[in-house]
Structure of UDP-glycosyltransferase:
Amino acid sequence: MKKKIFIFLPDGVGLRNFALTNFKQIGEANNFDITYWNNTPFSIEKEIGFKEIKLENNKNNPLTTIFTRARKRAELNWFDKKFNEKVYNTYNFPQSYGSLKEAVKSCMVDVLVATCSHAKGVSFIRKQIKKLERKSPKYAYSKTQLAQEKPDFIFCTNQRPSQAIAPILAAQDLGIPTATFIFSWDNLPKATTLVETDYYFVWSEHMKKEVLMYCPYVPADKILVTGTPQFESHFDTSLLLTKEAFFAQHNLDINKKYICYSGDDIVTSPLDQFYVEDLALSVRELNKKGYNLGIIYRKCPVDFTERYQPILEKYSDVIVNIDPLWRPVGTSWNEIMPSKEDFALQANICEHTEFVANVASSMVFDFVAHQKSCLFFDYEQPQLKKGIRDIGQNYHYIHFRSMPSKNAALWSFNKLELTQTVQDIIDGKLSNVPEGQLWFETIVGKNPTQASESIWKEIKKIVK
């Protein structure tokens, strides 16, 4: 008899890895009965044709938001004390006191943080969140659904959302084994592990060490190293067009060499548009010297601003805009849904450009999978003023310490030297690929093409 597996999507970020890849097909080939337990506005059944059960009730306990916000801040304070650091609190963002309602909530968070920024305090908050969510409408709703459906295992695709807490607790209280997937390389140092499951699926041995470091309540034998489906498409040659076909599809000049500029969200890089401009000026300068270069601008899928538009128009002689193939099904960042077609688009941009330039983006890993370099900008813009975040902060984050050396990426520390740096990369004098591959292996793991298969192998062991 087939084991019934629920792939739990608390929000949209899990769609990319677990609904739009071959993940389901591999599971079915392993004789699993797969249902998507869907908490997103995206209809998997209508859009993709996969079996789904919708979670219609989204009502958490009203106090949960306060305790989850406090947990993150208290944990980051505790990490700074525990590891003798100052960097963890830079992952925090200021609280809102703009309205009476928000001010009351923020003050309640502040009180909890002031009294609970230590091991026992964090443990207290964790327990309170569970108590609160067991009293929520969502918990009762989820428990009824699960009692009716009787799945053998629940795989949560994302450890961050508070919307996942009640359904996971309901499953555990019914004796259904649960697991969560750590969905991004920077999540664990940021104290974003809100969902507490029986098993934790991680990308690499490096990430397993991070779980043990930041989540001491998790036993080592419950952390399973599988890799991530996120990069599998980069090794799927069937997705790749010829250079001629790709260039024709996007009206690119076949005689030009293109550089990819990968845009950032406004929080990570609030002055990102000016780095695009700097790159465009360097390209113009090199073209005057006889080079024939252009820029493909790929925006961050969850960036909703118009800040790049004047730059794209001003430098239209060298910049071509190719938008990612994502679409909104809601209003928040985690309701911008990817498409299967975007896997191919992203892989082809990596394959048919010379290198990528950006601010602190994980696109370094996408490009090194294609043996291409990544240039990180790390200098201040003259537009920087009080109240605007300096992008240099990004490179001090804990997750950047995973670099085997600074040579795992290329760097632009000075706008005046950018043109020469770009020229040296184009001429083959500069590359971060050898060290970048070591960094890729550290973060992503040694078998990037086998992640989906590895996840199903571990699920098979658990449900036996």
